[in-house]
């Protein structure tokens, strides 16, 4: 395991949480191992591990880019991650307002719908 991979796993766990990463790791196969290594080293070990902007700012950028490019399936995961990155509800809506202006109202509208659902789930009391 490379240092960048180890850093990536640490950052990935701090942003997405152990439970999410453990589930993803359990589903990893020999087929997708190269892809998982790429995103762990590249996305998490390089981009998310950088120190030029804060995790909060990275969350906002990530959410805006996912919405702007129509990659909606990852939005719920990254909305949940805001609990660990410090991005607030206000930050999330601001990111999507930018999407509406620069990438289109339908994409922002769908992203906001997804974010509302996830934020509501996050506010529900846990069943103990």
UniProtKB/TrEMBL annotation:
| Record-annotated Carboxymuconolactone decarboxylase-like domain positions | 35-116
Superkingdom of the source? Answer: Bacteria
Which organism was this protein described from?
A: Marinibacterium profundimaris
Pfam families in UniProt: CMD
- InterPro entries according to UniProt: 4CMD/NDH-1_regulator, AhpD-like, CMD-like, Decarb_PcaC
**Protein name from the UniProt record:** 4-carboxymuconolactone decarboxylase
Instruction: State any single GO MF term.
Output: peroxiredoxin activity
What does UniProt give as the signal peptide span? none
